[in-house]
Predict the structure.
Amino acid sequence: MHVQIILFNSRPGNNGAPVPENFRLEDTSLQPDLNEGEVLVRTLYLSVDPYMRCRMNEDTGAGYLTPWRLSEVADGGGVGRVEASRWDALAPGDVVTCFNWPWATHGVLKGSALHKMDPQLVDGHLSHLLGAVGLTGLTALLGIREKGHVTQGANQTLVVSGAAGACGSIAGQVGRLDGCSRVLGVCGSREKCAALVDELGFTAAINYRRDDVDARLKECCPDGVDVYFDNVGGAISDAVISQMNSGGHVVLCGQISQYNKDVPYPPPLDPRTQETLLRQGITRERFTVLSYMDQMDAALLQLSTWVRSGQLKVRETVVDGLENMGVAFCSMMEGGNIGKQIIKVSD
């Protein structure tokens, strides 16, 4: 059968920024004859995420991430339908997801690598299985709960950087639902600030490209910062940590401002920021959602309940066509998305 695939074509240049030409679309054929335990799937939606920038390097800097290999099919989060199966647990028509879904219109995958999903979890909005009711939502929910130590009635202030992105937009809402009295988002445009406050229920938002971040933090967080969900690192994180209260918690989710640089992960902190952490007794712990997969089913059910009831709002930026994977990836890395960046491959 005829399929289209996206190959990882080249590593980013000297400035570290990815370009669409790092990926290449090819037409090929797929042998649909299945071996025992294999499943033929048709791709519906694919996800592009900041962590994938690390996979473009020869060394990802993270033991749980494998690098993409040159001239091989790229992969990541995906959702699709089973078209044929020689794996007893799956039948044609089933909706399935996978963390390592090939960037292709169709694929043959091991049934053991696929997770069967109930479309009712997302009221049929299957792209949500990659975002709010998928790995992104799990990262936000479990990051806030496992590392943020949010307590109902404690009058805590939460700051989220990268707040209009896939994970940040969910994390801020989870913090509010779990009891934070004040939730501040840091993002990069007036449109994003409006979405955070008017649609997603954030208390306030800072446009780091235009605002004086330090001054706005003081204004919006008069009692200091108790929990910081960090998606970006760099100068923004230094500013937030400088205003954190004693015994506060930094949830180290991502460092997108540093991914194009040749530095280890997590990147080294400014010495003054490191001194603040030590002096104030602030925890700063790396969070990897894959360490909490035993909590996945209960957490997905919680996220689904919130989404279906309207308590958790979902924003997505959807691009049509597998051929636009590279453009969508680069746009996401530059902040062109609000909410989850999704590529629709087929109906």
